[in-house]
Write a structure and sequence with these properties.
The protein is built from ten helices and five strands; from the N terminus they run H-H-E-H-H-E-H-H-H-H-E-H-E-H-E. With 178 residues, it is an alpha/beta fold. It has one domain: 3-Layer(aba) Sandwich (Rossmann fold), CATH 3.40.50.1010. Strands 3-2-1-4-5 form a five-stranded parallel sheet.
Length: 178
């Protein structure tokens, strides 16, 4: 997505740092980073297009776990946000106000083996915070709102839409070309 022409306007304020440099600046307390999990799921799914081996959900889950552990080991605390779903009991109205423990124990979450459910259970096992966006906002907008209100220090996103939703700081996962 993104907004046409936004980056040239924001470029003067851009500051490119390695995650390690940013982590050192926040050495006393891990930097809290809000992440729209659907972006990560989409990225993991897209990377499977040219691969035809094994169980796709297992491969995607392993990829998501690897990314999550890299962020944690770099000194950041990820806070994942799932999109609200009115048709999904574990990610719908009840989940918005429920605690993580309640969501993990819910029969819908335990019985459903979809990637989203498996990922939510994995995050709980890792003690990584996550929640469901409010019914009237996307996960990306919710991440920006968390940043705007000081509940997280930054938003991790691949586009600039988070700034339109009020984010103050955006981190981007830059890939080294090999």
């Amino acid at each position: 997505m993104g907004v046409q022409g936004l980056w040239p306007l924001l470029d003067p304020a851009r500051n490119e740092l390695a995650f390690s440099e940013l982590a050192v600046q926040n050495i006393d307390s891990p930097m809290r980073v809000a992440i729209d999990i659907s972006v990560w799921i989409h990225s993991a799914t897209s990377s499977l297009i040219n691969h035809n081996a094994g169980d796709p959900d297992h491969i995607r889950l392993r990829s998501l776990l690897s990314r999550c552990l890299r962020i944690i080991s770099a000194g950041f605390l990820p806070v994942f946000v799932f999109d609200y779903s009115s048709t999904d009991p574990a990610f719908g109205h009840n989940a918005v106000s429920a605690s993580t423990e309640t969501i993990v124990a819910s029969s819908a979450l335990v019985q459903n083996n979809s990637l989203k459910y498996e990922l939510a259970r994995l995050l709980c096992l890792l003690k990584v915070p996550w929640f469901v966006a409010s019914p009237h906002a996307t996960a990306e907008a919710e991440c920006a709102s968390l940043n705007l209100h000081g509940l997280v220090d930054a938003v991790m996103s691949d586009d600039g839409d988070s700034f339109l939703f009020g984010a103050k700081m955006k981190l981007e996962w830059l890939y080294k070309s090999e």
